[in-house]
Design goal:
It is a single chain. The protein is about 10% helix and about 50% strand. The chain has 2 helices and 12 strands. A hairpin with a 2-residue loop joins strand 11 and strand 12.
């Protein structure tokens, strides 16, 4: 798996390829090619860095080169977090790691309804907290 991960590419159309100097073959990826299975915090000159380990033992630091994207599960409508690994390839953050990440969430200084995490000198949105205008008041 680690060997295949080193030759995995994604083209401008979003297709995934295993590409070596001698061969190229298209593959199907159901969701994301990697899974983020561990997170750790480290102090930095920016305050903190959040590092994520993938299922192939790659470590990436959430920051300008490795952004966070929150998608939505089509069936459950629940948030699905991803971190950019390299060149259009992402890792889906497993639920237990997402809970660790959510526990670190703080309100944005400019918009208190927006919660996220600080890492690598940036602020990465996890979600918004707001009042449901359709809820009945007691």
């Amino acid at each position: 798996v680690k060997l295949f991960a080193t030759v995995l590419r994604r083209d401008e159309n979003g297709d995934f390829w295993l590409q070596t100097p001698a061969e190229r073959g298209r593959i199907t990826v159901a969701d994301a090619p990697f899974v983020a299975v561990e997170m750790r915090q480290e102090a930095s000159e920016f305050g903190q860095n959040l590092l994520f380990r993938t299922n192939v033992d790659d470590w990436v630091t959430l920051g300008s080169g490795h952004g966070l994207r929150i998608g939505t599960d089509a069936e459950t409508q629940t948030p699905v977090p991803y971190i950019h690994i390299r060149k259009g390839l992402e890792a889906r953050i497993v639920r237990s790691v997402y809970y660790e990440l959510a526990a670190l969430a703080v309100p944005d200084a400019e918009n208190p309804d927006l919660y996220g995490v600080h890492s690598g000198g940036g602020f990465f949105e996890l979600g918004r907290i707001g009042i449901d205008s359709t809820a009945k008041r007691a």
